[in-house]
Structure formats: C-alpha cells, structure tokens
Amino acid sequence: MKVSIFSTCLVDLMFPGVGRSMVEVLERLGCETDFPASQVCCGQPTYNSGYLEESKQAMINMMVAFEQSDYVVGPSGSCVAMFHEYPHIFKGDPTWELKAIALKNKSFEFTQFIVRVLGITNVGARLQGRAAYHRSCHMSRLLGETETPFLLLDRVGGLELAPLANADNCCGFGGTFSVKMPEISQQMADEKSACVVDTGADYLISADMGCLMNIGGRLSRTGQEIKVMHIAEVLNCAADPVKGGTTS
Questions:
Q1: Domains detected in the chain
Q2: 8 Å CB contact between 153 and 133
Q3: Which of 47, 58, 150, 203 has its CA 20 to 30 A from that of 245?
Q4: What does the pLDDT read at residue 244?
C-alpha cells in the first residue's frame, strides 16, 4: 500500500521526530511511503482568519502535490480536516471541485488510517507509565474522529490511560486564536494543564502537535515534569516487529 506523507507545517518545521515516527510505524505495518516535496501549508491559518481567496492558491498547491497519491496520511486531525473542507470551498469550480473531492476521499489522520484503512489496533508498541490523552477540537469536531487514538493506546503494552477531566474542553491553541487572544488562550491552557496534572500522568499524549505545543508550554512554565508525546511517537516506542501489524 502506497502512502504519501502530509507532514503539516508544525511537524515539518518544529517537530520532525513526529514525522519520522509516523513513517517508521507505517513502514513497519507494510506501507510504502513517499513525501511529495512540493507540499507546503494546507491554507488553514489564513482561511480561519477570513482570507478565503488568498488561501486558495495554497490549497491548489496541495491538491496538485498529492494528485498522484493513493493515500495521504498526516499527523494532525486538524490539518487533515482542512483537506476535508476543500470540496466545500471549491464547490462549483469546474477545475478544482473534483480534485478537492478526490483529495478529501484519500486523506486520513494517522491513527484513523491505521485503524480504519489498515484494520490494525495493535502495532506492538510498549511504553511503561501513566498517560493522559488530550482530544483536539478539530480532530473530534471537524474530522469527526474520536475513537481511533484510544483503540491504539489501549493496546500499548505497559501504558495506563488515565481519565482526563473536562476532556472536551479546548486547550486554547486554535492556531491563530492563541496569537489574537493570548490572554484568553493562556487561561484555557492553564485550565487544561491543571486537569492533566490532576491525573498524575507521566505523559501527555495527543494527535495534534499544536495542542501539545500549547499545553506542554504551560506545563513547562509551571514546573511540571510531564513528558509530552505525539501518538506517533508512542506507537513507535519499543515496537516489536513480530507483533507489528497484527490485529486485535
């Protein structure tokens, strides 16, 4: 199965280890990966700021970049959800509407692809300790995926998943929201961080690096020693090549 990696801006520029973990997990599960070099930004920051027409060139670039891909997999439910907005944005456009629909239909968030396309819930990973999982707003509410991260984490050997209070609450990142409304964003991040601390977790896990960057920053500034990990890094921990790719 051929998979094109959609790295996202944050992972590409700031957290390349997450992208590397994603590739290693997918290849261990039997996928052949590539990385279309012309990909840049999906257009979400400017689109969410109200600059629709100015965002379209970035979106067109992404449709062209992944036009030949069989599957497109990204480490962010938020950015993949942006791809799923393209058919609405280009509705009625004789050149780009069908290409937007094609990209939407073959684009998946990382855990979503593993569970719903590959049919795998146990990748053979092991991580000893207690963890809290943060559900990002865009992945849950826009992409509509709430199950696949938990199905995979439940089968990570040695990992205890603690219930997180106010799990549906936003962390305050919201892309440009945290820049435009920093005081409100900080209060939201502080509330989320306090809920994470209350779980007694060793790790904070999520499927969106924007959220992890925001919450992790507040945890660090308040002196909390909780390790922040993207779920791709967790699934790449001490993976057993014999078990990798088995279904549960």
A1: 2-117 (no CATH), 126-235 (3.40.50.11810)
A2: yes
A3: 203
A4: 37
**Per-residue pLDDT at 248:** 29
- Token couple for 48: 């969410």
User: Does residue 239 have a pLDDT over 80?
Assistant: no
Phi, psi of 191, deg, nearest 5: -65, -45
Contacts of residue 13, defined as CB under 8 A and 6 or more positions apart, other chains included, come to none
Q: Are 188 and 150 in contact (CB under 8 A)?
A: no
Q: 134 φ, ψ to 5°?
A: -100, 125
| Alpha carbon of residue 174 to chain centroid | 13
Which parts of 177-240 fold into alpha helices (H)? 177-180, 182-198, 209-221, 231-235
pLDDT value at 166 more than 90: no
pLDDT score at 186: 82
217-221 long-range contacts, CB within 8 A, separation 24+: 217/189, 218/186, 218/189, 218/190, 218/192, 218/193, 219/193
> And the tokens for 7?
């790295």
| Phi, psi angles (nearest 5°) of residue 2 | -95, 130
Question: Which is nearest to 232 in space by CA: 92, 143, 94, 112?
Answer: 112
pTM for the structure as a whole: 0.91
Whether the per-residue pLDDT at 39 is higher than 70: the answer is yes
Burial of 62 (0-12, 13-18, 19+ CB in 10 A): buried
* E strand residue ranges, 56-150: 71-74, 107-109, 126-134
pLDDT-derived band at 36, boundaries 50, 70, 90: very high
Our CA dihedral for 66, 72, 73, 75, rounded to 10 degrees, sits at 30
